[in-house]
Design goal:
By secondary structure, the protein is an alpha/beta fold. It is built from 15 helices and 17 strands. The strands form 4 sheets. Strands 5-6-4-1-7-8 form a 6-stranded parallel β-sheet, sandwiched between helices. Strands 11-10-9-15-16-17 form a 6-stranded parallel β-sheet, with helices on both faces. The structure holds adenosine-5'-diphosphate (ADP) and magnesium ion. Magnesium ion binds near residues 355 and 356.
Length: about 400
């Protein structure tokens, strides 16, 4: 069942609100990484070429609405102006910026739009009602346009005015980025070519329970690394020293192990460190020799070999969560080696979901070496959990 996409809309001369994810890192008014803006260009350029009148909306950072002083500070910090300026450099049409989320200036800018031109609206979170999916706000925003396109994959797991509210009112469709995300993640998780191997890591089991649960029922193997492996090892009765552990998840880890039919594969050795620090003393130890005053900060060489063996012949691989504390050089090897192994699998569909995993892969130079690196941290996790994403659910089937 395919959803309507921007190709199904007749957009010439129409006012089209596009919800994009322009939530880029900004420091002292300078954009540190414009990848999210770049990712939105296919949809924006298509609409420009088709002669739509484009109204771009996005959130940027967080805006507190409880304490007025904080609200003012957050608004100053999360002003969309530099984003609009950067977009102006990336597209070949006129881009105007409205520093408001409501009112006469915004309405005038929209009325003045010519076919193929763009208005960027101020940060949607300037409005208190945005994250509450306030019906009045949604109605007002919808009144500015004829059509709505959702292209902010990083926000589709949130039922906000700009992601769901407007879409409930206007004829709506998916943009190219969201279409690609749904297609790639959907193929990997719901129509995997087998063998299907899932690799899960990262910090906490508690963040990933629903993902583990869902992938255990679908994947042929689930390899567990990173900090969350230690809760599983403790559940198996191992001494894990000062490694990350969630005591209140040990029973659940036991249950997963008991039900997994050998699908769950845990690390067999570790890079154990005397402290959570780049210059800590390190030792390679197996599961029975983690010193009581050391902590496991990366998978060890035997585990890398074991995981590579399990990956051999895989035709679908979904990876979420780094294998170690990749931000520190001495603990980045596991993540790097697994990243390399996945990227070299012949003919496999390889997908990364999860904010830090995607960042790790890009930082390690693997940007173009996977079939798909998801742009949505939380959204890709919820997708892999098998949850319905409200910003996608609201779009009609063809
Ligand atoms: P993602 O964003 O891809 O879903 P997470 O947010 O779950 O991933 O986890 C990422 C974090 O996990 C990283 O900051 C990394 O340093 C941390 N991490 C990985 N392995 C360990 C470990 N053994 N001990 C502590 N932290 C770890
Ligand atoms: Mg994360």
């Amino acid at each position: 069942m395919a959803k309507l996409t921007v190709r199904d809309l007749s957009v010439k001369g129409k006012r089209v609100i596009v919800r994009v994810d322009f939530n880029v890192p900004i420091k002292e008014g300078k954009i540190k990484d414009d990848n999210r803006i770049v990712q939105a260009l296919p949809t924006i350029n298509y609409l420009v070429e088709q002669g739509a009148r484009i109204i771009l909306m996005s959130h940027l950072g967080k805006v507190d609405h409880k304490d007025p002083e904080q609200t003012a500070a957050d608004k100053a910090k999360n002003n969309m102006a530099p984003v609009a300026a950067r977009l102006g450099e990336l597209v070949k049409t006129k881009v105007s910026f409205v520093p408001e989320t409501k009112g006469a200036a915004l309405e005038a800018a929209v009325a003045e739009l010519k076919d193929g031109e763009i208005v960027v609206v101020q940060n949607t979170r300037y409005e208190k009602g945005e994250s509450k999916n306030d019906p009045e706000l949604s109605k007002y925003w919808a009144s500015l346009a004829d059509l709505f396109v959702t292209d902010a994959f990083g926000s589709v797991h949130r039922a906000h005015s700009s992601t769901v509210g407007i879409a409930e009112i206007l004829p709506s469709a998916l943009g190219f980025l969201v279409e690609k995300e749904v297609d790639m993640l959907g193929k990997a998780v719901y129509e995997p070519v087998r063998p299907f191997v899932a690799i899960l890591g990262g910090a906490k089991v508690s963040d990933k329970i629903a993902v583990i649960e869902n992938l255990l029922t679908i994947a042929d193997k689930v390899l567990i690394g990173g900090g969350m492996a230690y809760t599983f090892l403790k559940a198996e009765g191992k001494e894990i020293g000062k490694s990350l552990v969630e005591e209140d998840r040990i029973e659940m880890a036991k249950d997963f192990l008991a039900r997994s039919n050998g699908k769950l594969i845990l690390p067999v050795d570790h890079v154990a460190a005397s402290a959570f620090a780049e210059d800590a003393d390190t030792k390679i130890v197996d599961n029975d020799h983690i010193p009581t005053d050391y902590m496991g900060l990366d998978i060890g060489p035997e585990t890398i070999a074991l995981f590579k063996k399990e990956l051999l012949g895989a035709k679908t691989v979904v990876w979420n969560g780094p294998m170690g504390v990749f931000e520190m050089k001495p603990f980045a090897k596991g993540t790097l080696e697994i990243c390399t192994a996945i990227s070299e699998l012949p003919g496999a569909m390889t997908v990364i979901g999860g904010g830090d995993s995607a960042a790790a892969a890009i930082q390690l130079g693997f940007k173009d070496k996977f079939s798909h690196i998801s742009t949505g941290g939380g959204a890709s996790l919820e997708f892999m959990e098998g949850k319905e994403l409200p910003g996608i659910a609201v779009i009609k089937e063809k």
